[in-house]
Amino acid sequence: MKLIIVKPELHKFASCAEFAEAFKLGENDLVLTNEYIFNPYFGKLNLPVHTIFQEKYGAGEPTDVMVDAIAADAVKTGCKRIIAIGGGTVIDIAKVLAVSDGGPVDALYDNVANLEKRHELVIVPTTCGTGSEVTNISIINRTRIGTKMGLASEKMFADAAVLVPELLSSLPFGVFATSSIDALVHAVESSLSPKATAYTKLFGYKAIEMIIRSYQKLVKEGREVLGGLMEDFLIASNYAGLAFGTAGCAAVHAMSYPLGGTYHVPHGESNYAMFTGVLKNYMEIKQDGEIAVMNGYLADLLGCGVGEVYDKLEELLNQVLPKKALHEYGVTVQDLDTFTEAVMTTQGRLMGNNFVPLDAERVRKIYGELY
Ligand SMILES: [Fe+2]
């Protein structure tokens, strides 16, 4: 049994200048990032690096079309090392670049068992959610087949993950909200996964505690204190990444992908739309085992009885990001069947990590309840 994967080296620096110096950023490096991150934080350093600004290739989460265009341009630079500085989109694309020869991403999905690492990879997250700097999976919206799908390979791990809290100082509140809720979902789903171990739960439960305590402080004291909490959120997100990197995510993620893919809902927000709905259905099927441990842990943090943890959790989360019903995103009743079909046919990797197995009827029921 795999206890925990401890893959990239972890680093933390107080400033971008310290990071650039320690990693000797230079002409053999391709920095994949966004212009609004690179210019204010790295512009004044005058680094002789190559840059690709992701937003020039399209807005939102990565699509097959966007990744193909970036990979084609990246290969032309001849760079040896990829430095990803950004949120989930930039990081997911950089992992693909690490194994890409410049060809289409569809070919990588078709040949996943034989991917080769072609570039060293350094990942610097600029949001506090994905934990993706320590995992080996990219989620791409495969517009040609109409769903988001994970591409995962041993060869897609970064060589180094670097935390620079300075980079989060100008994070917009909306991005903070969706990304930190994503981290909370990673921690909860991975801790309930049948693949969870004492090691993954050490990181998972600690991440839950850090995120909930920080939300409580934020709600009580106001948004002015957010800057001081950001390092905790960044570390909690990294912990949650270590937890789900081994134990996996599950139905919340699986069921959120059709919503995110079809209606362009940010990843953390589409997860939140499914989060407590999935947990409540787990509880209808099985009330003992890890879910009892989880609910007891949440009850302690939230200061409530175990019977009301999901309502209290939602009450807290709604003050960070208001939860919407699925119809508010434009979802139709017919979509619920299409989404169910997509989950059951394309999300087997995630659905295998559910606390208890969920069949098509149950998935359709959950979508119906959240509609
Ligand atoms: Fe996620």
TrEMBL record:
- Where in the numbering of this chain does the Fe-containing alcohol dehydrogenase-like C-terminal domain appear? 177-369
Query: One matching Pfam family, short form?
Result: Fe-ADH
Per the record's keyword annotation, is Oxidoreductase included, yes or no?
yes
User: Mind listing the UniProt keywords for this protein, alphabetically?
Assistant: Oxidoreductase
Say yes or no: keyword Oxidoreductase present: yes
- The Alcohol dehydrogenase iron-type/glycerol dehydrogenase GldA domain covers 28-164
- Its Gene Ontology molecular function terms? alcohol dehydrogenase (NAD+) activity; metal ion binding
Tell me its family: Belongs to the iron-containing alcohol dehydrogenase family.
Q: What is this protein called?
A: Iron-containing alcohol dehydrogenase
Q: Which organism is it from?
A: Anaerotruncus massiliensis (ex Liu et al. 2021)
Read off the lineage from the record.
Answer: Bacteria, Bacillati, Bacillota, Clostridia, Eubacteriales
